[in-house]
Predict the structure of Cation:proton antiporter.
Amino acid sequence: MNAPLVTIGIAGLLVVISLIQPLARRLRVAPSVLLAVVGVAIGLLATWLLYTPKTNTFNEIAGLFVNFPMDSQAILYVFLPLLLFQTTLTLDVRRMAEDGGVIFVMAVVAVLVATAFIGLALSPFTSVSLIACLLLGAIVATTDPVAVVAIFRDIGAPARLGRLVEGESLLNDAAAIALFTILLGVLTGSATADLETGLILFLKSFGGGLAIGYIGGQLLIHVLPLVRDFRLAQVTLSVALPYLVYVIAEHFAGVSGVVAVVGAGILINLVGPSRVTPDGWTYLNDVWEQIAFWASSLIFVLASILVPKLLVDVGWNDILLLAIVVVSALAARAVILYALLPVLAALKLTQPVSRPFMAVILWGGMRGAITLTLALGVTENPAIDPEVQRFVAVLATGFVLFTLLVYGTTLKSLIKLLKLDRLAPLDAAMRNQVLAFALNNVREGVARAVTQYHIAPGPADQVDAPYRARAAEAADGAAHSEDILDRDRVTIGLVAISNREREIVLRHLRQRTASIHTAENLLAKIGRIGDRARAGGRVEYNRAARASLDFPVTMRLAQWVQRRLKYERWLARLLADRYESLLLSRIVLDELIAFTGDKIPPLLGSRVGEILTEILANRREATTTALEALRLQYPDYADSLDQRFLQKAALRLEEDNYRSLFSQNLIGAELYSHLSQSVQEARAEADRRPQLDLGMRTEELTAKLPLFHDLPADRIAAISRLMRPRFAVPGDHLVRKGERGDAAYFISSGAVEVATGDRRIRLGRGECFGEIALLTGGPRTADVHALGYCHLLVLSRSDFRKLTDKDPTLRDHIAEIARERQAMNASPPDDDQAQNEADTDRKTLPPAAD
């Protein structure tokens, strides 16, 4: 390989693809279409220069492009992981999940249908085998979203349409390449032509690829915090990941590398923003955008350069076969769109897709570089018959050119014809309100600039007048707009404040006042709340907000581990995580309420602003209640975390001051570096969260009980050996009515509620419940729930008997309590008495709590 020649060839292509961008805008065509045309032109010119007898001057450079020193496998290994990974990084995965069913059908099912349609349609008209026809079907089933999405963005097509096409293409490539690999194995004799075997291989390829992608993504997620302050290292790791999972999946595991890259990319998309700083995430995406531009443009040009080589000796029979491919591919796509999707939507298995959307998706199935590269791979395989090689090369290349030159040049007109380039009704109705709000902000900024720069009134009025007129016109239009219902305005507002809430959390992460783990946890909850609001408005938002305060399954499991295995550290860590998350959430909600009161009314109206403020106030109240419940149980630990948060905020302000002084040249680089280093050291200390002590030492809890308060230390120690500590969180169902009593409970701290039908009585520190069932042998007569965080001591039936047998006084005391409670339960109090009992704290003898 002539290194200087290859270098200058690649550099020349980079110049070409850079100049194509403005040229495509001027010609109003998709860049991919122009890239294909230029690539074919370069290929034709290079072929002519290499083989013409008129000159030998350009033979070296022409030979480079005619016989480029990269085969199809090298092109896929170099460019495909980059393209797939960058696409997944930019996807709105949460919004795309709403159309997951549609995307799956359009990607996976459509690939199988298209392969079958094309293969079966071609088979009667050609001498090659059915497997070869199916192989061609799998090759041309891959779609390229680059050109389509570029057209969508250029004319302002609906965002959902773009998500559908991008999502389809992402999984489409994975399914098509997996199917291509299986059929290629059958064609070359390395695999059996058995439907069941093929299906198993297909599922294995998909599932194995997802597993490898998930593992790779998880590894990167755990490594990224180690290089949190080194964004160049973060980008480098992100570039290494797609190559590693792709090669491991394809070469070592024998599964789909495409699926592995997609799986890893989606995981990084969802979790990555909380594992690095917001500035670092922005930088990473900016770098990847540049990488993807190079990769997508180069693979398109390189594949297009090979077109003349692939289209050798094209005849009329090939044109007929190409027409069959075009018609059958359209028919397969139409069957999925117009026959299968409506049925699935009627069964509530997928989201409905409108007829205009279907038409655009049908006509937008353009093919590109991946199709050409797979076709090139067939021509390079010596195990494949030359007739099959030519068959695949000619038809795949011809189909790519047809879709680019026909679909690509007419898609924009179709979108305009279907009026999909217009604003959605809600956006159109909001236009005047957004304009009025933005233009008034501009006028205020202009007024400040006039004062600051001492501009004369005449020029100032000349600049302000057009904005004043436009703002007045927009305000008048907004005042008369009745196109948006208040319900829709509330939904729009809830989605907007969810997005703003996410930004506030990311700002705290950037400012280092929130830990990565806490921010990640909170961002996941905010994402779910926003998704539910988008789907169901106010009701679903409130439901999701309440659910975000519930205790997760891991908390229940940690309680079980503490109760059964006496291991407390996991439970203590989860409780500390909960307090830190609730603290950050309350701070964020305070900021969000202020934002809502200031920004929402001008856009959505004062009534909607009041509703949203009320919703957020209720969220803040519920969050504060949950936070105070933890603070009440662990006040010292809560104070230490509050102090830690303030310390982090102070360190951020200190760092900002040093940075400001340095930017103003008031301090030198050496002093700034020294001061910054001291802040970093202090921050490292502040980042270490103190450990939470659950206070579950049995002997200490036993000594706190008034029942045993006056006993000597050795007697308390003996009793404590019979007790089992139990930790309860708010809402825990401790005792169920009707079940057989097997233990008595002593409350060391916290409070519980006893429900005996018409009574709800609170028990607090020093009291016990569950003892009657142990004395009488009868079933439980009440339900008991934890009102807050509780430290309980549990005494089993056998240990209860041991304890009472050794201490007749204690036995008599507990028996007296049981008799008095049974007597009270036998004569229910009137409403006033029940209310009085509920409002007093241990001033009257509680009823039985069994």
